[in-house]
């Protein structure tokens, strides 16, 4: 499930420079196209079995949005050999836990078990892929679950629809323009046959990566993987349509009223390149300079020193096809949205004009190194990173080498990225207001 914009803007801070150990892995393909990645770690008697499918909200029919996220729920309903309602019972009875999450680009399922339950976890994930039961009872049940999730996480949550509104305005033709949770009206209108067709199209071994990470015997794991996944038929290869957005060359504005909001928020958003690019990593560093921690430029000036904003942040949201660079702020009483965005713009202009100091650059490099080490500090994080680097980036070894891309970024690169992507004529300004603010306007 999606984290809030606030959480996205807060990067993990650790003291000092940590050193990363190389993540060892083995990868291969089954005959049906399923990609398999094994990472052995015997430091604790735990195993993680995960499957990531290359299907997200961007793969949906514009008249049937929400399908990818819906399946994240639906495929826990049961299989031909796991009775409805028994999935979670089996996991907990064997000392495990499990979850799933969906993004615009992919859907991810995983189980964490004591290491003596590897065979069980492989069987369960193979069941999800080979024998899912998709019937009207399950669809109706999960439809209510998803509606309740939308009410709790978005409709009744302050700023809960913020990213939905940003995406809707920033993308005109690309499927990133709708929210991951999609339209409840679309889900209500969908037939059982449409759900079954979606499963048949996207939940195929040649559209997935299986990762086993933790304490296991490699030869035994390979035998079980072949036993449980090898017989699953290869699916029809998926042809994906490419969507190209026209560059934003003129600033534009939008307003959204949220009855849950007591304090208005202002957001500026810029469209940025794919997460696969070097520029996407440079923009991560720009975010760290501007709003990573209380000593960051925007926070220190706008929140701490001038006390103009209750909160200010800048975050680079990188995705497979395009990204978004989002700056947001909540004005303190006596200040307007325009006041705090003027201050934020001044900080961007400084980045576009002057090289950051060597001292600040060294601090930035330390932050990036620490974040990299933290991302691979436990076996669960490693499993998800191995999946993502294979499925979305096309290079599993980026788990070891992406840090070298960050290390190659120079102060000049930071200045050029700010000049290229963060200009006033390239952005949306969204006033996210409450009913009180609308009445005052």
From TrEMBL:
Span of the signal peptide: 1-20
Entry keyword set: Hydrolase, Metalloprotease, Protease, Signal, Zinc
GO biological process, one term: proteolysis
InterPro entries xref list: Metalloenz_LuxS/M16, Pept_M16_N, Peptidase_M16, Peptidase_M16_C
Domain Peptidase M16 N-terminal: 36-177
Gene3D superfamilies: Metalloenzyme, LuxS/M16 peptidase-like
A Gene Ontology molecular function term of the record: metal ion binding
Kinase is among the record's keywords: no
Peptidase M16 C-terminal domain boundaries: 191-367
Similarity section: Belongs to the peptidase M16 family.
Protein name in UniProt: Insulinase family protein
Annotated organism of origin: Flavobacterium cerinum
